[in-house]
Specification:
single chain, 70 residues, alpha+beta, Glutaredoxin, four-stranded mixed beta sheet, binds glutathione
Length: 70
């Protein structure tokens, strides 16, 4: 699974904590929020709301909203 992540995102931080507590690892895809990558077409294809984080499961399912991911 892949976590679309930004190190200064508090919402993404919560997801990283939950993954760590569960002993799960996820590939981390860096979304450069200072460069507004979250608003670009490539990321909006993942999350049309342009918010970080998003989690892509291995079967292609994408979950957005940190609490839903957790
Ligand atoms: N309710 C969302 C909030 C996510 C959110 O607001 N993320 C911020 C970063 S912490 C974001 O992506 N902001 C977009 C922006 O600043 O353009 C969640 O819990 O995932």
């Amino acid at each position: 699974m892949k976590l679309y992540d930004y190190f200064r995102s508090s919402a993404a931080f919560c997801v990283r904590m939950a993954l760590a507590l569960k002993g799960l690892t996820a590939e981390r895809e860096f979304v450069h929020m200072r460069r507004k990558d979250q608003l670009g077409a490539a990321y909006k294809a993942i999350n049309p709301m342009g918010l970080v984080p998003s989690l892509a499961d291995d079967d292609g399912t994408i979950v957005t909203q940190s609490l839903a991911i957790i």
